[in-house]
Design brief:
With about 210 residues, the chain is α/β, with parallel strands linked by helices. It has a single domain, classed as Rossmann fold (3-Layer(aba) Sandwich), CATH 3.40.50. The chain is about 40% helix and about 20% strand. It is built from eight helices and seven strands; from the N terminus they run αααβαβαβαβαβαββ. Strands 3-2-1-4-5-7-6 form a seven-stranded mixed beta sheet, with helices on both faces. The longest helix has 14 residues. It starts with a helix and ends with a strand. The model has no long low-confidence stretch (mean pLDDT about 95). The structure holds S-adenosylmethionine. The site of S-adenosylmethionine has 17 residues, from helix 4, strand 2 and helix 6.
Amino acid sequence: MMTNPEIERYIKNHTTPEAKHLAELNRETNLKILYPRMLSGHIQGKFLEMISCMIRPKMILEIGTYTGYSAICLAKGLTKEGVIHTIEINPELENFSKNYFSKAGIEHRVKQYIGNAIEIIPLINKIFDLVFIDADKENYLNYYKLVFDKVRRGGFILADNALWDGKVVKPVEQGDKETEGIIKFNDFVQNDNRVENILFPLRDGIMMIRKL
Ligand SMILES: C[S@@+](CC[C@H](N)C(=O)[O-])C[C@H]1O[C@@H](n2cnc3c(N)ncnc32)[C@H](O)[C@@H]1O
C-alpha cells in the first residue's frame, strides 16, 4: 500500500527510471486500452524485475498478460535460454503486447497464449521457477492449485492484488466474488504447509510464496 503522494514521489525519484519502451507502453495503455490501472507500472514493475533477477528463472509462467508490462519486467531476469509463458483471455490485446515484446527485444523469449488460463494451464507441460498470478480474482485459488505441481521445489509463486484495495479486511458485500476469491486464496496459502509465504504490502499487495 502506497503511503502518501509525497512519499510516492520520493520513492519514484529514488528508483531507477522506467525504461523507454515501458514508459511508452504505460502511456499507450493509458491512452488506448480499457482499465489502464491494471498495468503493474513503474515501481511494481521494477520490483518484479528485481525479484526475477534474483531468482534467474529458466521458465516463468504469467497468468494475465494484459498489455505486457509485467511480462517484460519479469523477462529481464530470465537466463540466456529462458522463456516466459504468458496467458491472456482477451484476443484484442494480443498484437498490442506482441508489439511491445518486440520493442523490448524479448519476442523470442515470450510464448503467448490467448484463451482462458483455466483451460490452457493444464496443456503446458513445463516446470516453472516463477509463476505470476494476475488474472481474474475469482480464480486465484484455482490457478494456485493448477500450477502448484508445475512449480519446482524452491520455486516461487507471486500473486498480485492480495490486499484488493483493503477489501480483504472489511465485511464482504453480497455477491462480491472477486473479494471472496482473494480471501479464499490468501487463507488457503496461509494454511498450506507445503509453502512459506509473505503478504508483501507493495501497491495492492503481492502474496509471495516459496514452495518448500
Ligand atoms: C490485472 S490485468 C494483468 C496486468 C499485467 N499482468 C500487468 O501487470 O501489466 C489482468 C488480465 O487478466 C486477463 N484475464 C482475466 N481472466 C482471465 C482468464 N480466465 N484467463 C486468462 N486471462 C484472463 C484480463 O483480460 C486482463 O488483461
